[in-house]
Each structure stands twice: as structure tokens, then as C-alpha cells.
Amino acid sequence: MKRSRIPFLTSQQQTPSFSPATFLQNMTDNQPPASPPATPLLYSSDSYTISTPSPSSSYASLATSASTKSLRPKLSKSTTIASENIQVMVRCRPPSDMEEQSHEQDCWLLIPEQGTVKLDESNGTTFEYDRVFKGTDNTEIYESGIQKLVRSTMEGYNGTVFAYGQTASGKTYTMTRTAEEPGVIPKAVADVFTYIEEEAIDREFLLQVSYMEIYNEKINDLLNTGRHSTGLSIRTTTHGQDYVENLSTMAVTTPEEVMNYIELGEGRRHTSETDFNKNSSRSHTIFQLIIESKPRMSSLASVRTSRLNLIDLAGSEKVATNTERRQEGSFINKSLLTLGKVITQLNEGAKHIPYRDSKLTRILSASLSGNDRVAVICTINPAWKSKDESTNTLRFAQGVKKVRINPKITQVAQNSRLQNYKEQIVELEIQMQRKTEQEAETKER
Ligand SMILES: Nc1ncnc2c1ncn2[C@@H]1O[C@H](COP(=O)(O)OP(=O)(O)OP(=O)(O)O)[C@@H](O)[C@H]1O
């Protein structure tokens, strides 16, 4: 078995060459991604040795084993803070070349200072949100609307960010990487590592990622192409928490590694040219960062565990001409309709919320009904011809804004992944020590 020493993620030791500016710059320079590591790593504190799995172990099976139910943390106690609203932002993208050529006036009047959007004509309804944005700048959106949420996930709160809007309104542009303008996901990844390096002086971290899509109402693992990578099921733990069975989770130690996994997943996501968008997302994707941390100096202290969900929804759309696109569109529209119903019923205080009516709402149920901090970016098109769809998006955004949530920090007493990994590492160290002693004895004889 091959061994190397790799530090556990702490502020002093983590990736010495990491700089968020260079990391994002490298992405914008369009560098080809390095391949993801052949095997996920178990990493450790200074006193432990890291072990890479044996060459015969397959990437897929290791990935799957990391997500087995036995490694699920036992919840022990949680700290609640006052309830708050979901943060809602609206973004209107600039007109496309085609829209420019048709010399249409912009349909919407956005006033960022007031957080309002209204039809650019007299007597239109005025919609009000936490923030509204125009233009191409993803940094502004990240820094003013998302960064605080991302940083609070490093402190133990669960966080969810999702982009919602009709097809070709700019959800993927806002959430994922583009060569010119890195979106919320790469910015969040860079920020997580900056936080560990600069602010989490007394804590050590274990980070893992998963990436899935919901395509035609089936859940596919985007980081694993093995036998259990498509048509995954949602199960419920004895604590009543839903989880995706057999979804792989990968341990990560650098932002580049995370981005390599994202790149891998994006390559596997279903996208196609449609009547409305040259590169339309045909599935909802959920990228998850699982964060465990504990005070550096104490092995007995409670472990904090939290997750950050970054979600790029597929866009609602009118009926497409191509049969396959039409079928995909009907699955997309149905799940978005269910999401709308869930939001309405949460606001009405309904006893039964129809989370189980779609995979998307079932996966989002923990975020919407529970203890996550949630931010939603609703994207609209500027054109008059999209006025009705944009109005629907603005109404959805108003509904979401009313939903109350109660963010909590969850502490895990024992049996966390972090603890399990450390125990495995100690066990391997002992075995290694014995083997070395035996070999030395044999040589002496
Ligand atoms: N804020 C923006 N600034 C400049 N261009 C943008 C912006 N938002 C979107 N675009 C461009 O508009 C087009 C559609 O955007 P994008 O693919 O992100 O939409 P989408 O909502 O994710 O669509 P779908 O639901 O079909 O996947 C792309 O060419 C994208 O580059």
C-alpha cells in the first residue's frame, strides 16, 4: 500500500499555494482541467498517516462506500437562531444578439437601490425583493447576496442556493463556470478554502463533495459511472431525513480538486440545443459540499456538520418542436410546478406539503421546511415576448420570499465521518507498524 503524508485541512497547513484570485483567474484563462484523482483520499491530522486505497480498489466502489448509511452522522444537539425569510434576488440578463437585432425595448425596469422590478410602462405592478441585478457581473451577485450564506455553512449552518427561471434566462450563467465570468459555484468553492486558510484558526475540516442531476425524474450520480450511478432512490433514515441512496461522496483537499469534480459532472449533465437556448440544461443539478469540522486541539469535542447545496434548475419552457426535447420539457415543467405548489402551501401553512410529488421537491424538502439558510436567484429575460414567463418567475419569487425558515447549527457527538476516517487511519498505522516490525525481524534472522 502506497503512503504519503498529507495535512488535514487547517488554516496554517492547507494548500500553501492557494490564492482565490489566481484560482478564479486560472479558470477564466480556460485552462483544461486536470483529471480528478484516481482515488479519493482519506486525510488526517499531523500525527496520522494518509493512506491511499490499494490499486485494485475501484474509484466507483470507493466512492460509493464513502456514502454508506453507516457513516451517516448521529445528530445530537442543535442551536436555533431566530427565524428568517428566504433571501430572494432577481436578475435580468442583458438582451441577446437576436433580441438586440429586433430593436425591442427592455420590458422590465429594475431599480437596484430599491430592490424593485416593474414593467416598463405606467401602472404596472411593482415587485419587491431583497436585491435586484442587471448586467453581466457575477461577482456583485456573489458578494452581496451569497457570500454570507456560504461562510455561515463553514460555521455549521446548512445552506442552499438555487437559480430559478425560464429557459435561456441565465441560471447556468449565474451558477456555474463560464470562461469569462465564473459563477456562484466556483466563487463559493474558492471562498470555502479562503475561509479555512484565513479565518478558521482553531478548527480542522473534512470536506466532501457530491454531484447529481434529476433528468426525466430519475436521479443520476454525476461523479460515478458505475453500476449504481443512474436511477438512484431517495430513502428516509430513522431520524426522518431523506437521502439519496448510493450517491458517491468524494473527499477533497484543494479547490482545484473540487473544480475537477464539477467539470467532470458538468460533462455528464444532460444538455442539448433547444428552440430557445443553444446549450440548454435538460436536468436539475445539485452540487453538494459536506463540511465537517472540530476544534483542532480536542479529539473529544463535538463535531459540527453542515452542507452547502448549490442548485442549477432546468428552465421552464413552452412546448418544443423536437419530441425528445418535448418529453424532457414536460418533466421539467411538472417538477417546477410542484415546487411552486410546495412554496404556496408552505405560505398557507398547509398541514400536508406535497414534497413527495417530485424528486426535486423531495430533495429540497430539508432545505425548504427546515433549518437551512436559503437564497434563491430568480432570472428573467429582458424581452417583451418573454413577458408572461418572466411575470410567472417574479410571482414565484414573491412566494418564496414569504417562506420562513429556522437556521440551526447541528453538532454531531460521535460516529462522524471525520471520526470514522481517523479511526481507520489509526488502524492502518498499527497494521503498518506491525508489518514493518515483522519484516525487520525476518531480515535479522
Ligand atoms: N447575465 C448575463 N450576462 C451575459 N450573458 C448572459 C447572462 N445570462 C445569460 N447570458 C447568456 O444567455 C444565454 C442563456 O443563458 P443560460 O444558458 O445561462 O440560461 P439558462 O437559464 O441556464 O437556460 P436553460 O434553462 O435552457 O438551461 C447564454 O448564451 C448566456 O451566456
Core attributes:
single chain, 445 residues, alpha+beta, Kinesin, 3-stranded antiparallel β-sheet, 22 strands, 24% strand, elongated, disordered N terminus, binds adenosine-5'-triphosphate, Kinesin-like protein
Q: Radius of gyration in whole Å, from Cα?
A: 23 Å
| First-to-last CA distance | 25 Å
Number of domains: 1
Count of individual helical segments: 11
CATH architecture annotation: 3-Layer(aba) Sandwich
The top-level CATH class is: Alpha Beta
Report on this model:
Pfam families: Kinesin (PF00225). With 445 residues, the protein is of the alpha+beta class. It has a single domain, classed as Kinesin (3-Layer(aba) Sandwich). It is elongated, with a radius of gyration of 23 Å. The strands form 6 sheets. Strands 3, 5, 9, 10, 11, 12, 15, 18, 19, 20 and 22 form an 11-stranded mixed sheet that branches. Strand 6 and strand 7 form a beta hairpin. The chain has 11 helices and 22 strands.
List the helices and strands and how they pair.
Blueprint: E1 3-4, H1 20-28, E2 50-51, H2 59-65, E3 75-80, E4 84-85, E5 87-92, H3 97-101, E6 108-111, E7 116-119, E8 126-128, E9 131-134, H4 138-154, E10 158-165, H5 171-175, H6 184-198, E11 203-215, E12 218-221, E13 234-236, E14 242-244, E15 250-252, H7 255-268, E16 271-272, E17 280-281, E18 284-295, E19 303-312, H8 323-347, H9 359-369, E20 372-380, H10 387-401, E21 404-405, E22 408-412, H11 417-444
Parallel strand pairs: 5-9, 5-20, 10-19, 10-20
Antiparallel strand pairs: 1-2, 3-22, 4-21, 6-7, 7-8, 11-12, 11-15, 11-18, 13-14, 16-17, 18-19, 19-22
Helix pairs in contact: 1-6, 4-6, 8-9
This protein binds adenosine-5'-triphosphate.
The site of adenosine-5'-triphosphate has 19 residues, from helix 5 and strand 17.
Coiled coil: 411-445
Keywords: ATP-binding, Coiled coil, Hydrolase, Microtubule, Motor protein, Nucleotide-binding
InterPro entries: Kinesin-like_fam (IPR027640), Kinesin_motor_CS (IPR019821), Kinesin_motor_dom (IPR001752), Kinesin_motor_dom_sf (IPR036961), P-loop_NTPase (IPR027417)
